[in-house]
Specification:
Elements: E1 4-7, E2 10-12, H1 22-26, E3 29-37, E4 40-41, H2 44-57, H3 66-80, E5 85-92, E6 109-116, H4 122-127, E7 129-133, H5 154-165, E8 170-174, E9 180-183, E10 187-192, E11 195-199, H6 209-220, E12 225-228, E13 240-245, E14 249-256, E15 259-260, H7 268-284
N-(5'-phosphopyridoxyl)-D-alanine (PDD) binds next to helix 6 and strand 13.
Length: about 280
């Protein structure tokens, strides 16, 4: 159960970072969360691609290449020696002046956190979780584009707080036009009459790595998958709902706004996709 933190290529047990780093001052940073299976990083290429795309979108120039990340991540994983790890890759704008102008930040900081992984309890997968459709809206794409994974997650933090107040474990957000988007750290899927539906990228969501794989696996296994726009209230007519993400994998949702989804238990299509996803990971590892 060890934590190791790699700061610009040096591995530490703990890290103190300057309060003048704009990542701290303004959430001016990008990040990725990567999981391991059999101590190997899952979908690292995809996570690194997204990290570089996010950085480019907000004009942070990452000072190292992908090979550097691969090498440093392996060194840090070895130093931590955990069976499985939670890995967070962060690139901040770097230290600058106290004002919001990023031009004073000359050197982005690269931080790799390797921690012991805390998995979701088995009971979540057996019973499903409770979610609430919250009033906090997901950022529109011409604001802070949800498809850019920045360290500014306050939009999602507020949504999560609202869900918790409503007695739910997670929140589902709509965009300013009322269309379904995603969860606070996961993508949204639902099932109606045997069809798998998921908000399209133009609704304003993060293009999840798990989401893409689940869409692919579902199609390969004969399911009809539709990416589109649905109003928030349409979720109440779903037979099944599930969330996807690096940590959640395929997480069944059994209650929406305090009411059971379908039978109030994880649905058959959700459980089928969870099994397909886990089988895929195991074969790949
Ligand atoms: N979050 N949507 C949002 C807003 C997310 O933050 C995430 C991931 C996802 C799912 O993406 P992926 O399948 O690539 O993990 C969707 C990570 C796990 C996090 O911030 O902790």
């Amino acid at each position: 159960m060890t934590t190791k933190i790699n700061f610009n290529g040096e591995i530490h047990d703990e890290l103190n970072i300057s309060v003048m780093d704009h990542g701290f001052l303004f959430g001016d940073s990008v990040y990725e969360v990567v999981s391991t299976l059999n101590s190997k990083l899952c979908f690292l290429d995809e996570h690194l691609d997204r990290l570089y795309n996010s950085a480019e979108a907000i004009s942070i120039k990452i000072p190292c290449d992908k090979e550097w990340f691969r090498e440093q991540l392996n060194n840090t994983l070895l130093a931590a020696g955990n069976k499985e790890s939670y890995v967070r890759i962060i690139v901040t704008r770097g230290v600058g002046e106290i004002n919001i102008d990023p031009s004073s930040c000359e050197h982005p900081n690269v931080i790799l956190m390797v921690m012991d992984v805390t998995e979701y309890p088995k009971s979540c997968y057996e019973k499903g979780i409770q979610v609430a459709l919250v009033s906090i809206k997901r950022n529109p794409r011409d604001s802070l584009n949800p498809n850019v994974k920045t360290g500014n997650y306050l939009n999602n933090v507020l949504a999560k707080m609202e869900a918790n107040k409503l007695g739910a474990q997670d929140a589902i957000m709509v965009n300013p036009w009322g269309f379904l988007t995603e969860g606070t750290t996961s993508n949204l899927f639902f099932v109606r009459e045997g069809h798998i539906l998921t908000p399209s990228l133009d609704c304003g969501i993060l293009s999840g790595i798990t989401r893409l794989l689940v869409i692919e696996l579902a199609k390969e296994n004969g399911f009809h998958v539709e990416e589109g726009k649905w109003l928030g209230e349409e979720l109440s007519t779903a037979d099944e709902i599930f969330l996807t993400g690096t940590l959640k994998k395929v997480m069944p949702v059994s209650y929406l706004d305090g009411r059971p989804v379908g039978s109030g238990k994880p649905g058959p299509i959700t459980l089928n996709l969870l099994r397909l996803y886990e089988d895929f990971l195991t074969k790949k590892a």
